[in-house]
Amino acid sequence: MRKGLLYAIAAYTMWGLLPLYWRWFETIGAGEILSHRIVWSFVFVAGLIIVQRRGKEIRAILGNRATLLTLTASSLLITSNWLIFIWAVNNGHVIETSLGYYLTPLINVVLAIAFLGEKPTTGQWAAIAIAGSGVLLVAIDYGSFPWVSLSLSISFGLYGLVKKRMRVDATDGLLLETAVVVPLALLYFLYIGYSHEAHAWSLPTGTFLALLASGVATAVPLLFFARAASRLPLSMLGFIQYIGPTLTLGLSVFVFNETITPVLLISFTLIWSALIVYAWASVQSARSLRTA
């Protein structure tokens, strides 16, 4: 449990600071950045597999059809999450990404109810209702569906659920997750090269090397997250996540100079209130079980 907690804190801190990293490449399209992220993540993790001599374990997974299908699902979920996040950061929607990841803990609760048989208390249901009202308020204020926030929260919530149910070593799983989408990334490289729309190769040397390091920036927090997911309850894992969006919200206001509207501030307040209510209800439930 203690190791899982440390892994979760490390992962979410790294993710909270990632907008600083992706803004370095804001002149490049989200699809091109994503393709580099996938390819160099695969290269980095493949290097770890070679160093750790885990070829036997990889072959065993490749022989298990059910596990491969699960890995394919997790790969598509995290890849879609990456694409939406990169696009949002480089198009001035950092606050919306923060809102999305504030919502993920409550999405985790809903998923735990639906798929893991967890039964929320009255207080926990109240937290879900409060958070839902915050999302509805944002939707009304925007005049449109808050697709960035909800897409990020749902895709990452589902990814956490899949990782929770997967019995695969974190490094092995990440290698195969990236391997699933590497062919698509390479095809995209060919497409933008043929269309003369590739920009990464013309970057200054230092910036290009930083882009190559996206494999490390991607893989390390995911490895930490996978190890945390295997050690912590899904609901606890989700609520530790508030570290990430809090850091991202701070960056959006104090570094990227985005404006928080009064309605958005009210929405954040509702979601924070929901987090507090859920944490309080969880503590009360745990005390009741100990004294029963």
Task: Please characterize this protein's 3D structure.
By secondary structure, this protein is mainly alpha-helical. It has 13 helices and no strands. The radius of gyration is 20 Å and the shape is globular. The two termini are about 25 Å apart.
Number of strands: 0
* Largest β sheet strand count, sense and barrel closure: none
What's the gyration radius in Å?
20 Å
Overall mean confidence score, pLDDT? 85
Distance between the termini: 23 Å
Helix and strand pattern: HHHHHHHHHHHHH
- Total number of helical segments? 13
Low-confidence stretches: none
Summarize the structure in short.
With about 290 residues, the chain is mainly alpha-helical. It is built from 13 helices and no strands.
What is this structure's SSE topology?
Elements: H1 2-22, H2 30-52, H3 55-62, H4 65-89, H5 94-116, H6 122-142, H7 147-165, H8 170-194, H9 205-212, H10 214-229, H11 234-240, H12 243-254, H13 262-291
Helix pairs in contact: 1-10, 1-12, 2-4, 2-8, 2-10, 4-7, 4-8, 5-6, 5-7, 5-11, 5-12, 5-13, 6-13
